[in-house]
Amino acid sequence: MNTGICVGGLADGQERTSRFPKGFLLVDKELDIVWVYNWREDRGDFFAREPRGEQLISDPEKPDNRWRAAEEGDYDVIAVGAGQ
Amino acid sequence: MTTLANPVMRAFAVAWDVMYPSAVFAGIVAGNTHVQNGYHVSIEDNPAGNYSITRADDKAPPGSWSRNEAAAVDMSMSKTDMTTCTRLFKVVWSDLSDPRRVYFNAFNGWEGSGDAKRYDFVSGAVSTATPDHKTHMHLEVKRRYVNDPRAYAAALSILRGESKGDFTMPKLVTVNDAPTGPGTIYGSDGVTYRGFDSWGHALQWAAFWGCPSANLTVVKWADVPALLGKLVPDLVVPVAGPAGKDGAPGKDGAPGKDGKDGTDGRDGADGQITGTYVISPVA
Q: pTM here?
């Protein structure tokens, strides 16, 4: 697990933990937005790929959809509001 | 060796994801650096003696169930939905007479304050779970039932907030040959039906289009016209194919004395599911 402060995006300034090596997806399913946080090993933090968030892809037929992220072992998937 | 995600379990995860507004599917099979043992890992990939492969309903052999599939689902949810789901399962965990509990080994959940907890259905114990279980609920299905649709019907019943008295196991409907292949759409009656080649794909499609899983059904293609606009509330799941043919009779014994009874013929192989699944979208 990696634990660190989030830089940018919805979780800016929050300490988060990812169970997976590359970081985590912070998913707002109701608003169809996702923030992809990449783990930065050298800084020990999570950096938002796009501070304003990105379009959430839920269609299992499309690439980079959230089901695939959940089934692969690179990124954790965390719902907005989880644990808080 | 590898660990796979059972398609019926995956379909259940999709249904759970659809059911709660904040819920997002967070995995079945352990990732590369996730804990490499336990219910997110198959029997054959677990180290010998691991806690998840030693109980009677998990151990295979002697059990004959799947050895290459994971047996746990992770679902991330908001604090509100986590609290709801945890409390619903906790009711079942605390009631030894609830018939739905038989399918589950344990779950990790959080009620919104304090530590996340692990609730063991088999031992009845409750213990502290790791802090990441404040952000996702972890549900373990006994490995015996990983491929059993009834386990997921029971889980969805719990998640819907049904009491044990309200719960009835959904009917299983035989699927017959489909006139056309997956992806067929019938629109002339004003209701769109779509065929899929797997239960998992059907639920994923339903999730994408916002069709409640409670309205999913498996039907005979011949019955489609009679179902125009009708929403069937049961969650229907894949069924086995038709029974195999009877074995050939044994030969008669030699004349002059009673012959030995003929040996029973071998059972025929189970029929394959030849149809596809039809779902009825919400009108």
A: 0.73
